[in-house]
Amino acid sequence: MKSASILEAVVAMITDGFTAAKAFRHHSGLPIQYVAARTGIGVALLIVIESGSSASDDEISAIATALELPRVVTAG
Question: Which InterPro entries does the entry link to (predicted)?
């Protein structure tokens, strides 16, 4: 099943220290510049968020939308 392999790959990245948002972005093959353009969040701030810093609810929602994920997946 394709979704299981996606989940396994993302979980492996999270186990290796990636945040959920960064793991899904990397797995999707999306450049951070693309997510920045889709969210209106600057690249520098996305890097900080992907490093594990807190993000506002609006930022989390924007990232989830850009990655086409449910919001709850990117929290944490």
Answer: Lambda_DNA-bd_dom_sf
Task: Provide the token pair at 55.
Answer: 């993000």
Q: Are 49 and 39 in contact (CB under 8 A)?
A: no
Count of other CB atoms within 10 angstroms of residue 60: 20
* pLDDT single digits (tens) 42-52: 999 999 999 99
Question: How high is the mean pLDDT in each 10-residue block of the chain (76 residues)?
Answer: 73 94 92 97 96 92 89 55
Place of tokens 């850009």: 66
CATH class, domain 2-74, is: mainly alpha
Residue position matching structure tokens 């951070």: 32
Q: What is the C-alpha to C-alpha distance for residues 41 and 20, in angstroms, rounded to an integer?
A: 17
